[in-house]
UniProtKB/TrEMBL annotation:
InterPro entries: AztD-like, Quino_amine_DH_bsu. This is Zinc metallochaperone AztD. It comes from the Bacteria. SUPFAM superfamilies: YVTN repeat-like/Quinoprotein amine dehydrogenase. NCBIfam families: AztD. The lineage of its organism: Bacteria, Pseudomonadati, Pseudomonadota, Alphaproteobacteria, Hyphomicrobiales. Keywords: Signal. Residues 1-20 form the signal peptide.
Amino acid sequence: MRPSIVLLRAGLLSAGAALAALHPAHADEHEAWRLFVADHSAPELRVLDAEKGETIETFSLKSPARVYATESNETVFAVQRDANTVTAFSSGIHFDDHGDHADIEVSAPKALEGSVDGERPVHFVSHYGEIALFFDGEGVARVVSEKQVQDGKPEFRELKTSAPHHGVVIPYGAHAIATVPNSKDPSELPEGVQVVDAKGEAVGDAAACPGLHGEATSGNITAIACDTGLLLVSGSRSAAPTIQHLAYTKSLPDDLKVSTLAGGKALQYFLGNFGKSNLVLIDPEDEDAFRLIELPVRAVHFVVDPVRPKFAYVFTEDGKLNRINVLSGKIDKSVELTAAYSMDGHWSDPRPRIAVTAEEIMVTDPLKSVIRAVDAETFEKARDIAVEGMPYNIVAVGGSGEQHENH
């Protein structure tokens, strides 16, 4: 399988940049990364300086949360399911893209005004500059632009489905993809998706997707996992998205399915679970689209690397972090980080989660109150970062850019 390179930047020199080249302003290259870490049991969100390992700020929440970063890395959302609310935070890292380079501004992280409330918020999607928050207890998605959230004025619009269910809505500019509840029992997983317009009106026929669970975007394609394969959604901000079905190949084990997906950056591919002890690489452009990766034990968590596109990582219940080369489709390195974390027990028990910065892969170790950092180049354990409580869900936000004097 050869994942397709799709996210190349043109790098055109703007008039302003050309002028700067003739008369260069004083600028320094600067890099900043922060970790947003939610506690497993306490209603707290900590922000750490990733390089120094020091806590910058601790925010109080209404309940323990799952944390998600937007595509811009400028906003982090805390989905507090048990408190029926979602709150947002400025990462304090802002990028101003000039085509051939980006300027970076770094300030203190802060809680943003306003919240999005509703019954049982679960699914978060950031797409095309909009955020869709799906409330399972209502069967309603509340959609808001990231800019409005940053301005402290989250004026959301609602997209309603026919019944409360465990669903998702994916913004597509003037349209959206909304799940269709199971017609026999809405408490079961959805049975399909429907393209809707900005008012929530159906556009065309629904696409079947029995047992729907899991979605991710890579390049210009969004993949949605079903019992029968994947739905591949493509579109733009203005045109109605189109949907194609990609069936599982016969070479895959029977009676298994994808239920969690991650989307590649710079390389267009998807990484999904396939049962408890396998992962599957998916190249939607390849004739043999699915490639199975067998794991020695069950997977706990996996992510793609946004900085080094050819790598992804999976933490397994034997306490090891494993590096996957997505070009070869194989695990090429492993490092033991923690004691064993069995996947037996409740799905929400405290277990490690992974985040990636420019130089390190961060793995939370909630039972030891620490984050284990692995050097991205050597793939050896680099250091431990002590964190109060039980550090659990984690996202890394940041990047590099130029800092100008008096800019």
